[in-house]
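I am writing to request your help with a piece of structural work I have in hand. Thank you for your consideration; the sequence and its tokens are set out here:
=====
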Amino acid sequence: MHSARLRELLAGGICVALGVGAVLEASRYSIGTLKQLGPGFYPALLGSALALVGAVIVGAALTKSTVEEEADPLLEGGTDLRGPDWRGWGCIIGGVALFIFLAWATGLASAIFACVFVSARGDRSATLKGSLILALVMTVCGSFVFGYLLGINLPLWQWPFES
């Protein structure tokens, strides 16, 4: 078995195990009904989704042909020749840190915009225009969903550091 296939099998198996564990733990709480959700509903739903995704990953790894594995230019003996993508890591961590700071300082809309824009810049193939459009669309959608539909107790916009 090639190391790429083994990694996919292990990743899928871990997802299945964590998903089943989440469902089992959620079953200790009341699931409730669709009209009145209980505290175990979302953990059970997310655990089921995670287990399903893990099963799909395992299935894809088992049905993958060896020709596809040999054609992967990044793998040689199971090692990624490029090394870690520090730009991607830095942008994602920076985006989350900006979200935390800006949500407190300036409100939800600017925090979503900064998080998405900075995180999108971590992809080397992303253009500035594409990152801006993605950040704008996610700001509008995220502000609507979290600010209005879910009623998250965060101002949509506020001047920095006002009380």
User: Anything to note?
Assistant: The radius of gyration is 21 Å. Residues 86-149 form one domain. The chain has two domains: 3-80, 86-149. Residues 81 and 129 are 30 Å apart (CA to CA).
